[in-house]
Structure formats: structure tokens, C-alpha cells
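Weekly modeling sync, notes
Attendees: S.R. (lead), two postdocs, one rotation student

Agenda item 3: backlog of single-chain predictions. S.R. asked that every request posted to the team notebook include the full sequence so nobody has to chase files. The rotation student volunteered to paste the first one in as an example of the format we agreed on. Action items at the bottom.

Example entry:
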Amino acid sequence: MSMNRSEEEIVRGSFRGEESLEIPVITFRGEKDGPEFTVMSGMHAGEYSGILAAQRLIDYLRITRISGTVRVIPVISTRAFMARNMQLSPVDQREVHFYGPGNPDNSYTEFQIDTLYKLLANSDYVIDMHSGEFAQALHAWIPVPIQGSAEFQRRTLSLALGYPVEHIELRRDRDSVPLLVNHLADDGVANIWAEIGKNGLPDKSHIDAHYQGLIAALQTVGNLAGEPKRPSHTFIEGSRRQVNADVSGVWHSAVKEGDIVEPGQLLGKITDYFGTVLKEYFAEERALVLYYWTSPAIDHTRRPHGYDWHSGLVSLLTIDGASDSARLGTV
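Predicted structure, as returned to the notebook:
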């Protein structure tokens, strides 16, 4: 029997009376005062490690006393989840993460994000779990938006410090941060997103890492009792670069997630169906490979609504060289 009051609901809606939306939500309320904390996953419905970590957290909150309110949204669209969808909305092929609230009549995705935002807006803290899609081999790291006052930045960063990952990325450029993240920060909601997992696989170590980070964050802000673990981290800052295909064919990566590449190093090649090399791709600066596309099938023209993720080959974070490059070092 739960030590906290809990409420399960399916938030439903309909865009223009035609396209349905379902968002499952469970809310736990403790007997003592405390912050309001929302945990969500399934922004991209094929990123399963975060979704399963959310379920694990729900099981724990059913038997553990909390302070304040903890809300868990295991997936932000049952429709996308059940369709085994990758990255984009199954309704309008838009990237949900890069839309903000305020225009619910414009598109299904904007209706979806507006509905979601109403569930988040009263939170003090939000963590959004991501895990690497079916075609994406991801290096585990935690991006942290660095915005607002020094105190707000401290609160935001504190959410990341319990994750058992090597790298925490400090993002100061608003244009490099998903629009939803900016909206939350502007409204005073300290929030981060966690990137842990690869290729849509429900790997236990990735689920554990998400879960451990969540528990530490909830302890940090006072929703859970106990002293949060603080593993060592390397803090990174830098300019992001996505290497996109400019020919279609069969992709052969020469790097893997977490690699450090040097200028001029081969990143990979695209061949035709018979193995003839059509194009080779090389690193332009020293950089960390945040992720690379493991799918050999590359259609360089596939850019729905201008979104270039599906024509991507390698995602890099510069770590040496020009003034806007990253600074690697323990902080």
C-alpha cells in the first residue's frame, strides 16, 4: 500500500476534433510540504531506457515516503509509443522536442506540446529522460541549460550532479537548447534533460543510470530523504556540429560514441549499393562524438519540416581549438 496519496490519470485531447492524444500521468503527494517535481520520458517514443526508468521510479514511489509532490509522465504520447515510432510525431512528422507551447491550433505537435506544458508549468523542477533512438548510438551525458540568475543556474545544475555519467555539458547558448527547455527556464522551472541509452535498447545499465540520477535529484531538492550520491564528472562546453549526408546511400561509420576525433580524421563514408565510395566525411576539429547514426540506410533528402536529424551521420561537440570550442576539465 502506498505511503503517499497517488492519482493515476490519462490526460486526453483532440486536435481539431480529428487527431487524438493520450498522456498517462501519475501524481504522488506526500504528507509533508516540499517542491513539485515532474519526471517525464518518451519525448521520443523509441527511447525505451528512460521510459522503463520512469516505471521503476513509479514502483519505488508507491512504497516510499516523500515530501511535496512528484509527478511522473512515463510517455508523452501513447499513440507514438504504440506505433513504435522513431523521433518524429506519427501524425505530422514534426520533432516534438523543438516546439514550445502557445500555438495549440497550429499543428498536432504544437497541440501536444501545449497540452504537455500545462502539466509541467506549476513544477519547481523537471527532468526529461532521453535514451537514443533505434538508429542512434549515444554517448551517455547530461546537457544542462545555463540560464537566468546564478542561484537559478545552481538549482538547475544540482539536478545533474547525481548521474553516474562521465560528462555534464553546460549549454549557455539558447539556440542550442530545445524550445521546451527554454520555455520552462523562462517560467522559473529548473530543468535538465538526460541522454542515457542507445539504439532504443532497454539495457539494464542505462535504466539504472537514469534511475540513480532521478533518485539523487529528488534527494537533492528534498522530495526524498537521504544524502544524494555525487559521482565525479567532467564538465564540457563547446559548439555542436552535426555532420549531415549530402548524398544518399549506405553509411559506414568509422567512429563510435564517446570517441575523441582529431582534425582530418575519417568519420565514415557513404557507398552505393555495390560498395563504391560516393563520399567520405572527415572531422574538421578536435571533438567528442556524442552519437552517430548506426543505420546504414541514409536518404539525404529526408528532412521533414526542415528537420535534418534523419540525414545525420555524426553529432560532435568541439573540445579544443577555436575560442568557441569546449573546455574539458573537472570543475
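Discussion: group reviewed the output briefly. The chain has two domains: 5-235, 237-318.
Action items: rotation student to repeat for the remaining queue; S.R. to check formatting next week.
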